[in-house]
TrEMBL record:
All residue ranges annotated as the CARD domain in the record: 2-93
Organism the protein comes from: Ridgeia piscesae (Tubeworm)
Family under the similarity heading: Belongs to the peptidase C14A family.
Protein name in the entry: Uncharacterized protein
Residues annotated as catalytic: 238, 281
Length: 390
C-alpha cells in the first residue's frame, strides 16, 4: 500500500512537480519500472496532443495506485531521466526526514514485485482518466459469447433495450450541478454503443418530482420493452438517503423508481435485468481518508456513495462515479459481467481523493454501493447480434 507519508509529499510538492517535470524523458523510465502499463503510457501521450502539465497530473494520480515501492521507483525514474534535481529539491529531503517510517526493502522487494505484477494485471486494459472521456466500447468476440451465453441473461438482439437518462442540473435553493452535462453525455454515448436506444431528459423537460415520476411511468410503459432484453434508468441529481431531488426541491424515493419497473407493474420486463444508476448524494457526511416470478427480481441499483454520505463531482470533468462507470464499462464489458464491472467501479472510486480550494472539501473519499437481485450473470456482449431486432 502506498504510504500516507509519500502521498503527502506528492500533494505538498504537486505544483512544483507539475511545473518542472519533463514527461518526454520520464515516461519510458516509468514504463520500465512497471509504474505504467503500455496502454496508460499511450493514453498519457495521446499522440502528443496533451500538454505536459496535464500529463504530469495524470502521472501523479496514478503513482499512489502502484504499490508500496512506487514512490521510490518514481524517484529512481526521475534520476534516470536526468531530473535528479527534482528529487533533491522536492522529494529527497522529505524522504530523509521520514526514513524511520519506511521499512527497509532488501529481500522483501522480490515478494512485492509479484504484488506489483498483480496490480498491473488488475489495471491492464483499463486506464481511468480524470480528464475528458472519449467513449469507445470494446467489442466481445464470438468465441467469448459462445463460451458464456448459456449461463447468462439473453443479450444478443441488435437493440439490447431502452435506456432513460434523467439529468437534473438545477434544484431550487441550491447551486447548479456543474459537470452533470458531462456525465449525461458520456452515459448517452456508453449506452448507445452497448446497443441501447437512449432517451435523455433535462431540466427544460420538466424534472420536478412529478415530472420525473411521469417520465419513469412513461418509460415503463414503452412498447419497446416487449422486444428488449434489458432496460437502464440513470438519474443524475442532488439527493438524500433513499431519495433524489426534482428541480422543485421535492424528494422522490428511490424505491419508487423500482416500483414502476418491477415485474408486477411492467410485465414486459419480467425476467429481464433492470439496471438503475444514481448519481446523487445520500446525505451530508463527507467521508475522510483514514408474478410467476418475484416482482422485485432482476434489479440492479448502483449508488455512488454509502447511506448518509456525499458523492463528489468535478464541475469540469463530471462525477467520480459516472466517470468510472463509463470508462470501466467501455473497456471491460466485452469480457466481464456486471458484478465484475461494478466491483471494479467500486475499487476505482474508493481510491480517489478530493482536492479543492476549499479546505473542508479536501482529502475526502467516496465508497459506492451496489444492490441487486439478479438471478443470472449479466454480460452486455457488445458487438454480438442475432437476426432479430427490438
Amino acid at each position: 500500500m502506498f504510504s500516507k507519508t509519500h502521498r503527502g509529499i506528492l500533494e505538498k510538492h504537486r505544483p512544483e512537480l507539475v511545473d518542472e517535470v519533463d514527461t518526454d524523458s520520464l515516461l519510458p523510465e516509468l514504463r520500465k519500472r512497471k509504474l505504467l502499463t503500455s496502454r496508460q503510457e499511450d493514453k498519457i501521450k495521446l499522440n502528443g496532443q496533451r500538454v505536459r502539465a496535464e500529463q504530469v497530473e495524470i502521472i501523479l494520480d496514478l503513482i499512489p495506485r502502484r504499490g508500496k515501492h512506487a514512490f521510490d521507483d518514481l524517484c529512481e525514474a526521475l534520476i534516470a531521466s536526468d531530473q535528479e534535481r527534482i528529487v533533491q529539491d522536492y522529494l529527497k529531503p522529505d524522504i530523509l526526514a521520514k526514513t524511520e517510517e519506511e521499512p527497509p526493502r532488501k529481500k522483501a522487494r522480490k515478494q512485492d514485485a509479484t504484488q506489483n505484477d498483480e496490480e498491473e494485471d488488475m489495471d491492464e486494459g483499463i486506464d481511468i482518466n480524470d480528464g475528458p472521456i472519449s467513449v469507445r466500447v470494446h467489442q466481445s468476440t464470438p468465441e467469448f459469447y459462445e463460451k458464456k451465453f448459456r449461463e447468462a441473461y439473453p443479450m444478443c438482439v441488435p437493440c439490447r433495450g431502452l435506456a432513460c437518462i434523467i439529468n437534473v442540473k438545477h434544484v431550487v435553493g441550491t447551486d447548479d450541478r456543474a459537470g452533470t452535462d458531462i456525465d449525461c453525455e458520456n452515459l448517452q454515448h456508453l449506452w448507445v454503443q452497448l446497443g441501447f436506444q437512449v432517451v435523455v431528459y433535462n431540466d427544460e423537460d420538466d424534472l420536478t418530482v412529478q415530472g420525473i415520476r411521469d417520465k419513469v411511468i412513461q418509460f415503463a410503459a414503452e412498447p419497446g420493452h416487449q422486444r428488449a432484453q434489458c432496460c437502464v434508468l440513470c438519474v443524475l441529481s442532488h439527493g438524500e438517503n433513499g431519495a433524489i431531488y426534482g428541480t422543485d426541491g421535492k424528494l422522490l424515493p428511490v424505491a419508487e423508481l423500482k416500483y414502476h419497473l418491477d415485474a408486477k407493474r411492467c410485465r414486459a420486463l419480467k425476467d429481464k435485468p433492470k439496471l438503475i444508476f444514481l448519481e446523487a448524494c445520500r446525505g451530508d457526511i463527507a467521508d475522510t481518508d483514514v408474478a410467476d416470478c418475484p416482482s422485485h427480481a432482476d434489479f440492479l441499483v448502483g449508488f455512488p456513495s454509502q447511506p448518509g454520505y456525499k458523492a463528489w463531482r468535478n464541475c469540469k470533468k463530471g462525477s467520480w462515479y459516472i466517470s468510472a462507470i463509463v470508462q470501466v464499462f467501455m473497456e471491460l464489458a466485452a469480457t466481464k459481467n456486471i458484478d465484475e464491472l461494478m466491483t471494479k467501479v467500486n475499487n476505482i472510486v474508493s481510491r480517489k481523493l478530493s482536492r479543492s480550494h476549499k479546505y473542508e472539501d479536501c482529502n475526502k473519499v467516496q465508497m459506492p454501493e451496489v444492490r441487486h437481485s439478479l438471478r443470472l450473470p449479466l454480460y452486455f456482449f457488445p458487438g454480438i447480434t442475432d437476426e432479430d431486432g427490438c
